[in-house]
Amino acid sequence: MPTTIPHTSHVYPGKSSTMTRMFLNVNTMVLTKSLVFFYQADGVLHIIEATNQSQQYVTEIQPHHSA
User: Fold this and answer.
1) At residue 46, does pLDDT exceed 50?
2) Closest Cα partner for 48 from 34, 66, 64?
3) Are 39 and 53 in contact (CB under 8 A)?
4) What pTM was estimated for this model as a whole?
5) What was the pLDDT predicted at 2?
6) What secondary structure, in 3-state letters, does 3-67 show?
7) To which H or E segment does residue 1 belong?
8) Closest to 45 in 3D by CA, of 59, 57, 64
9) Other CB atoms within 10 Å distance of the CB of residue 23
């Protein structure tokens, strides 16, 4: 049986300056040519896709903790 990773996703429209503020406390960040940011902060993997200068989409993937 394949393993699935439960996750939560949120979409936040905003300005590019908002994205800059989000990266102030980033531990690790990688920028690719497709403008996708991957970084680890507070134990949560964040994936930010910048579609243009005035809009961004944020997906947060949190690890699943078994009870």
Assistant:
1) yes
2) 34
3) no
4) 0.21
5) 45
6) CCCCCCCCCCCCCHHHHHHHCCCCCEEEECCCCEEEEEECCEEEEEEEEECCEEEEEEECCCCCC
7) none
8) 59
9) 13
Q: Which residues contact 57 (CB under 8 A, 6 or more apart)?
A: 11, 12, 13, 48, 49, 51
Q: How far apart are CA 55 and CA 16, in angstroms?
A: 7
> In the structure encoding, which two tokens stand for residue 37, read together?
């940011």
pLDDT band at 5 (very low <50, low <70, confident <90, very high): very low
Residue 16: which of 46, 49, 44, 41 has the closest Cα? 49
